[in-house]
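We were asked to recover a plausible sequence for a given structure. The inputs and outputs are reproduced exactly as logged, with field labels preserved.

PROBLEM: sequence recovery
POSITIONS: 299
GIVEN STRUCTURE:
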């Protein structure tokens, strides 16, 4: 389970910066991640907005739109979208507290995976804090269903995830991943999986003024029964691995890693946020837990 056996909060050591285009606006944005004090959580700051409160602390309630990506908003109506891949990196690398400054309305899409964000955090370095890490321990199963999509959280003594997708195109078909959500597994099997879309959907999004920054540089694009990207896939089952990556980020808006098992079937950001809200609405189904540090094995 993330982050390490000390079960303490972590932040970054020093600021680190990355820049890229937003997938929907096509606008170039600069993002910097900075250390934050223990207990403060993840806070995004829209540095391009100066006439009202530009800080957006992450929480389950701050998520306002999750159709295409995860968008958050503060009480002053300041919004930021596409936070999920960075949130997944924070979760897997055990970062509890950080300030993320962005000078535009969405995070850069970069290569469409969490890999560049993991590299950003590696550059920033990690610092252990004194406060014990709070886990969200699942006590009773919680399930949300939306048509043929569903997501559930079940009791489990570690953070596990199972994700299943089913697409009629032979390029994807039926794919399943089932793994322990920890830093090593995230780095080796999940972080590099890219977002994906279908050529006809990209056309529709463009007509709606979206996906302006979308390209074969930051998404796997499927047209009928073939992949348009000349380089092909980065790994087998890249599609379902990316859905799992999204789910890790979508759940981390809770502000703490899960001690439980997540199971998603075709679930997108909207279903994941429905699950987060269902959890928050059922205080008997979970509790905050602190785990004792484990002594290092000697010999
Ligand atoms: Zn994604």
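RECOVERED SEQUENCE:
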């Amino acid at each position: 389970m993330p982050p390490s056996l000390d079960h303490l909060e972590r932040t970054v050591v020093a600021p680190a910066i990355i820049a890229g285009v937003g997938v929907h606006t096509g606008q170039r944005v600069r993002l910097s991640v900075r250390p934050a004090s223990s207990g403060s959580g993840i806070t995004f700051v829209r540095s391009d907005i100066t006439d009202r409160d530009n800080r957006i602390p992450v929480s389950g309630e701050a998520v306002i739109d999750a159709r295409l990506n995860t968008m958050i908003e503060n009480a002053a109506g300041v919004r930021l979208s596409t936070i999920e891949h960075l949130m997944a990196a924070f979760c897997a690398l055990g970062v509890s507290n950080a300030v993320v400054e962005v000078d535009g309305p969405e995070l850069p899409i970069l290569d469409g995976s969490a890999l560049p964000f993991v590299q950003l955090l590696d550059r920033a370095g990690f610092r252990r804090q004194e406060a014990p890490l709070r886990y969200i321990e699942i006590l009773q199963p919680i399930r949300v269903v939306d048509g043929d999509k569903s997501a559930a959280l079940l009791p489990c003594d570690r953070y596990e995830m199972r994700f299943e997708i089913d697409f009629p195109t032979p390029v994807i078909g039926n794919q399943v991943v089932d793994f322990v959500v920890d830093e090593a597994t995230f780095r080796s099997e999940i972080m590099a999986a890219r977002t994906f879309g279908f050529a006809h959907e990209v056309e529709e999004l463009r007509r709606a003024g979206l996906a302006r920054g979308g390209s074969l540089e930051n998404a796997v694009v499927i047209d009928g029964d073939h992949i348009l990207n000349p380089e092909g896939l980065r790994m087998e089952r890249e599609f379902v691995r990316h859905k799992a990556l999204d789910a890790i980020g979508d759940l981390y808006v809770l502000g703490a890693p899960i001690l439980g098992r997540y199971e998603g079937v075709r679930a997108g950001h909207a279903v994941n946020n429905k699950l987060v809200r269902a959890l928050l609405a059922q205080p008997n189904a979970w509790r905050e837990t602190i785990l004792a540090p484990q002594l290092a094995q000697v010999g």
